[in-house]
Design brief:
443 residues, alpha+beta, Hypothetical protein af1432, 2 domains, five-stranded antiparallel β-sheet, 13% strand
Length: 443
C-alpha cells in the first residue's frame, strides 16, 4: 500500500542500527534489475560513446545517488517507497531521452555533436529536476557505523555518503516552491561533473535552456521544457499503473477497480482516497483518448498553472461508476494525491474568467495535469468552434503561453514589515515602534 512515514524522534546520542537506514554505494543502489534496464535504455538513447557516458552521465548519476540514497520522492503519493527519488529520476530520464529522440532526431540519421549536447542537457536536467527538495523537504540525521549520532545533514555542503554510515529522515511540512527552484540551481552545479558542466557551458544557448529547465521556467525552456514535463508525467503514470496492478494482485485480481473494497480491507481512509484519485486520473486519460472529454470544452480547461476541472467532471465519473455514491469522494481522492494547486489564501478552489465570453469557471486546478493526458486527444477551439487532434507534448508546449483565461484572485493581505531581533530572527514590528510621519527614532 502507500508507504507511511512516521515522525522520527529527535536524534540524540546513539540508536540501534536496526532502526536506521544504511548508506549504500551507487553500485549497490543501481544493481536492481529494473534500474539496470532503465540505465541501459538511457545509455542507448544518449548516443554517447562509453567513455563520455561514464565521465558525463554516470559520474552525475553516482553523485546524485550519493545524495538521495534511499529517500522517497513523496511522503504518501507517487514514488513514496524507499528509493523512490532515484526510481522517479531514472524513469523520468529514460522517458525524456526517448521523447527527444522521437521529436528532435530523425530516425536512422547520425547524431551530430551539437545534438548530443542538447540530449545531455536534457539528461542532466531530468536527473536533477526538483533536487532542491533535499534541502527543504527532508530532515536527515547522520550516524556512524556504531549508530552514534553525527549531525544533521546539509545537502549543500556534502553528500550523505561522504559523511555517515547510517541515517534516518523525516519529511518537513513546509513546501516553498520558489526557494526549491533556487536551490535546484545550487545543488545541480554541485553535483554536475566538471566535464559535463563545461560541455553545457560551452554553448550559451544550451546553457540558457539548461538553467531554465532546472529553474522550472518551462516557457523559457521551450521544446525541451515541454518534453521534460511530458517525461515526468510518463514516469508518474508508470508508477500509478504498476501500483494498481500490484494492488489488484494483492486483492484477488479485481483489475484496477477499487470501489469494491469490503469492510475487512486493511487500508486507511487516506489510502483509499489516493487509490480513488489514481483511478480518476486513469479514467480521465482514457476519456480524453476516446473523445468523451475534450480539452478546453466544459468541464475541462487549460488555464495558467494547470488544468481546471469543475464539479461536473467528477459527476461524470460517478455516472460511469455507479458504485461511487457522490462526486465529493472523487474530488477528495484527487486532492489526496497532492497534485493540485493551492491558492495564496490556502483554498484549493480557483476561479477563472474566460476572455471573450467573460464566462466564469470554478473548480480544482490539477497542477501536474500532464499525468492525466494520453498520447493524443481532442482539443476544442473556443474562438472558432473547431475540434482538432493534438499530442500531449504539443498541448504541454502550447499551454505555456495560454492566454484564454484570467484568474480571479482572492485578496490577500501583504506581509507586515519585520525587524531583526538580537537572536537573528525576523519578527513583527510592534505598533509603538513604528515611526509616524515627521517623527524621529531615539537611538
Amino acid at each position: 500500500m502507500f508507504h507511511r512515514h512516521t515522525k522520527k524522534a529527535k536524534s540524540t546520542g546513539s540508536k540501534p542500527l536496526k532502526d536506521l537506514m544504511k548508506i549504500s554505494t551507487p553500485d549497490q543502489l543501481l544493481a536492481d534489475a529494473k534500474r539496470q534496464e532503465l540505465l541501459h535504455k538511457i545509455m542507448e538513447s544518449s548516443a554517447l560513446d562509453n567513455s563520455r557516458f561514464d565521465s558525463c552521465c554516470m559520474t552525475l548519476l553516482n553523485n546524485f545517488v550519493n545524495h538521495c540514497q534511499h529517500l522517497p520522492e513523496t511522503a504518501n503519493s507517487y514514488y513514496a517507497l524507499p528509493g523512490g527519488l532515484l526510481d522517479h529520476a531514472l524513469n523520468r530520464t529514460e522517458a525524456a531521452l526517448n521523447l527527444v529522440r522521437q521529436h528532435l532526431i530523425q530516425e536512422g540519421a547520425d547524431v551530430s555533436e551539437e545534438q548530443k549536447l542538447w540530449v545531455y542537457a536534457l539528461f542532466s536536467a531530468a536527473i536533477l529536476q526538483g533536487i532542491g527538495k533535499l534541502q527543504i523537504d527532508f530532515k536527515v540525521d547522520l550516524y556512524d557505523h556504531n549508530g552514534q549520532s553525527l549531525k544533521q545533514w546539509n545537502p549543500l555542503l556534502e553528500s550523505m555518503f561522504a559523511v555517515g554510515h547510517h541515517y534516518q529522515y523525516e519529511f518537513q511540512q513546509a513546501h516553498e516552491d520558489d526557494f526549491r527552484r533556487r536551490l535546484n540551481l545550487m545543488l545541480a552545479r554541485q553535483l554536475m561533473p566538471a566535464s559535463g558542466f563545461a560541455w553545457i557551458a560551452s554553448n550559451p544557448q544550451v546553457l540558457a535552456v539548461w538553467l531554465a529547465l532546472l529553474n522550472e521556467d518551462w516557457e523559457s525552456a521551450g521544446t525541451l521544457g515541454a518534453l521534460l514535463i511530458r517525461a515526468d508525467a510518463i514516469a508518474i503514470q508508470r508508477y500509478f499503473s504498476e501500483f494498481m496492478v500490484r494492488h489488484a494482485t494483492a486483492h484477488g485480481g479485481r483489475g484496477n477497480r477499487i470501489s469494491t473494497f469490503v469492510d475487512s480491507t486493511p487500508e486507511s481512509t487516506d489510502d483509499l482516497e489516493r487509490l480513488i484519485g489514481i483511478e480518476f486520473i486513469q479514467w480521465l486519460a482514457n476519456a480524453l483518448e476516446n473523445g468523451k472529454v475534450m480539452v478546453n470544452k466544459s468541464p475541462l480547461f487549460i488555464v495558467p498553472g494547470g488544468m481546471l476541472m469543475s464539479v461536473d467532471m467528477f459527476k461524470l465519473f460517478v455516472r460511469e461508476h455507479p458504485d461511487y455514491k457522490n462526486w465529493q469522494a472523487i474530488q477528495n481522492g484527487l486532492l489526496a494525491l497532492g497534485m493540485h494547486r493551492v491558492g495564496a489564501d490556502g483554498n484549493y478552489v480557483s476561479r477563472f474568467e474566460q476572455k471573450g465570453t467573460k464566462q466564469m469557471h470554478t473548480g480544482v486546478v490539477l497542477a501536474d495535469y500532464a499525468v492525466a493526458l494520453p498520447n493524443e486527444m481532442k482539443t476544442y477551439n473556443n474562438n472558432t468552434g473547431k475540434v482538432a487532434s493534438i499530442t500531449a507534448t504539443e498541448l504541454v508546449h502550447t499551454a505555456q503561453v495560454n492566454n484564454q483565461f484570467t484568474q480571479q484572485h482572492t485578496a490577500v493581505n501583504p506581509s507586515p514589515l519585520l525587524q531583526l531581533s538580537a537572536s537573528g530572527n525576523w519578527q513583527q514590528v510592534e505598533a509603538a515602534s513604528v515611526l509616524q510621519p515627521g517623527s524621529t527614532r531615539r537611538v
